[in-house]
Design brief:
With 540 residues, the protein is α/β, with parallel strands linked by helices. The chain has three domains: 111 residues, no CATH class; 66 residues, Roll (SH3 type barrels); 248 residues, Glycosidases (TIM Barrel), CATH 3.20.20. Helices cover 24% and strands 33% of the residues. Strands 20-21-23-24-25-26-27-33 form an eight-stranded parallel β-barrel, surrounded by six helices. The protein has a seven-stranded mixed beta sheet with strand order 8-9-3-2-1-11-10. Helix 2 packs across helix 6. The longest helix is centred in the N-terminal third of the chain and has 19 residues. The chain is globular. The chain starts with 5 loop residues before the first helix and ends in a 14-residue tail after the last strand.
Length: 540
């Protein structure tokens, strides 16, 4: 039996995000001069939202990999993983991914009439290291002749010769990559991206463990995030259709960003749609965020439910999907994976648990956090075996919203406090540990219009800002509903009475109080673009 309430979550995403995605498709960019091994070349590079882009015309001349091909019509690069030399956390996950991932797709971007690829994503595959400063992109080909190292410490200086004056010194950044060309008793001789030679004390340099010229993609095991016992975490989803929005500035109340990047392709053998953006991850990390990529079974697509069943019952399809979910996550350097499988039939309860268990066996090896989203405990959500699922994930997020949805016969709150509390208790009663439970928090509401007979005339979705705007324009009075634990407003329109159960700082604070009362791990907010910036301080 399909679940009626599942579709409202998708509807919210479509209503609020697709207009934004359309405006993002025309990204602003700057032209950058490209240097290869210290020499200027004729091609032009670009910088967009943390990504360094190079034209595909460089492939075959400056960028080479036999397993990478260009699909101009599809505006993507194809990577045949069976031809690539991978080195992941250990042999088990490396062999699994190499045997099952098949062909990955890397989206291209049109900039100034040129089809371009993200160097952030492809640098390893093309054996290129790079640096960006000013309006210059400096490339260095990795040949295997150089010893790759990193600066190990702060306030590290290098000099062009051992008798240099202090004025000729340059500063090196902690963690900066350098190339060792030789060695004296106390110094390493290094080269920069401009092919200049410097000397630096050997104690300030740490050599890399592997030769990056000998592998096509390397991803070491991450140090997995472990929440401190008394800390609370806040995950915030960002809906992504095709184009990823800018990574948010740092808010102390947000710990984890979870872009919806990877979707299962229906009836395509386990292949996954890739909407990842490495520049987003890089900027998010620089701001102090963790990034957990959300993976879905593409619940909005026709045939998704049936194909999800087929995947759970075909190990080849499931292995392909898991291998791609994981490898995409590693390519985009995320810190965790968030599973959002919806519109799943009841009979696939055990299949979803088995899928999650298999995913866990590989994410744990790689040091990635694993979380899963479920609907509220109810007779129509038995496809989620929450107790079993919680054994295989670090966190389980209960999507405590859409108490009243687009198909409801009566107007009401998206998530009244008693309804939310009942869902939390239900998860705990089913055996989900409070230390793993994240409470869902909606950042949207619904503007209901009802006629004199109480019939619903319309029910438009609204972001927090839209709802507040509507109240201001119509001079509506806001009152607090103790029964719902949130503010309420209504006003008269030519079609009837507008009713709004508000999502604002009051409703959020009440939910955060529940998190503390029940000792939960934290919260999960759907979704970032629907909220207002002032609310994030509440989560501190």
């Amino acid at each position: 039996m399909k679940k009626r309430r599942i579709f409202i979550i998708l509807l919210a995403a479509i209503l609020f995000v697709l207009p934004c995605a359309a405006t993002l498709s025309a990204d602003s960019y700057d032209d950058y001069t490209i240097y290869m091994d210290g020499k200027k070349i004729s091609e032009t590079g670009y910088y967009v939202k943390g990504n360094v882009y190079l034209p595909v015309t460089m492939i075959g001349t400056y960028c080479n990999n036999a397993g990478v091909s260009l699909d101009t019509a599809g505006k993507q690069l194809l990577i045949d993983i069976s031809q690539e030399r991978l080195m992941l956390a250990d042999d088990t996950i490396t062999n699994f991914v190499k045997a099952n991932a098949g062909i990955l797709t890397i989206p291209l971007k049109s900039l100034n009439g040129n089809l371009c690829f993200s160097l952030n994503v492809m640098s390893q595959f093309f054996k290129l290291d790079y640096s960006v400063s000013g309006k210059k992109i400096k490339l260095k080909a990795l040949t295997g002749k150089e010893t790759i190292a990193r600066v190990n410490g702060s306030n590290v200086v290098a000099v062009p010769s051992l008798d240099s004056t202090s004025a000729e010194r340059i500063s090196l950044t902690n963690g900066e990559r350098v190339y060792i060309e030789g060695q004296t008793d106390n110094y390493y001789i290094i080269k920069d991206y401009d092919d200049n030679t410097y000397y630096v004390l050997s104690g300030n340099i740490k050599t890399e463990d592997i030769d990056l010229s000998q592998v096509d993609f390397y991803a070491a095991k991450k140090t997995k995030f472990v929440r401190k016992a008394n800390d609370k975490i806040n995950l915030v989803w960002q809906y992504v259709s095709d184009v990823t929005p800018e990574s948010p500035v740092k808010y102390a109340g947000i710990d984890i960003l979870s872009p919806t990047w990877f979707r299962l392709k229906v009836n395509d053998g386990g292949n996954v749609t890739n909407s990842g953006d490495k520049g987003y991850t890089d900027k998010a990390h620089a701001s102090g965020y963790m990034v957990w990529a959300t993976i879905t079974n593409n619940m909005s697509a026709s045939g998704s439910t049936k194909f999800t069943t087929a995947m759970f019952n075909d190990s080849a399809i499931e292995n392909r999907a898991i291998a791609q979910y994981i490898l995409y996550s590693l390519i985009y350097d995320v810190d965790g994976i968030n599973i959002d499988f919806e519109d799943v039939v009841d009979d696939d309860r055990d299949g979803l648990t088995a899928f999650t268990k298999k995913m866990r066996s590989y994410t744990e090896r790689q040091g990635l956090c694993l979380s899963i989203d479920t609907l509220v405990p109810a007779s129509w959500t038995v496809e989620y075996d929450r107790k079993a699922l919680s054994k295989y994930v670090d966190y389980l997020a209960v999507m405590t919203y859409d108490e009243h949805y687009s198909g409801s016969k009566t107007a009401g709150s998206i998530a009244s406090l008693p309804w939310v509390e009942k869902a939390v208790k239900g998860c705990l009663d089913e055996g989900v540990p409070e230390s793993k439970l994240l409470m869902g928090i909606p950042l949207y509401t619904r503007i209901w219009i009802v006629d004199e007979s109480g019939n619903i005339v319309s029910k438009s979705s609204a972001t927090m800002a839209t709802a507040q705007n509507s109240i201001k324009i119509n001079n509506a009075t806001v009152t607090y509903l103790d029964s719902a634990g949130q503010n309420y407003a209504e006003y008269t329109t030519d079609k009837g009475t507008a009713k709004i159960w508000l999502e604002d700082s009051t409703s959020i604070q009440n939910r955060l109080n529940l998190i503390n009362e029940y000792g939960l791990a934290g919260s999960a907010c759907w979704q970032y673009s629907q909220g207002t910036s002032d609310i994030w301080n509440l989560f501190r």
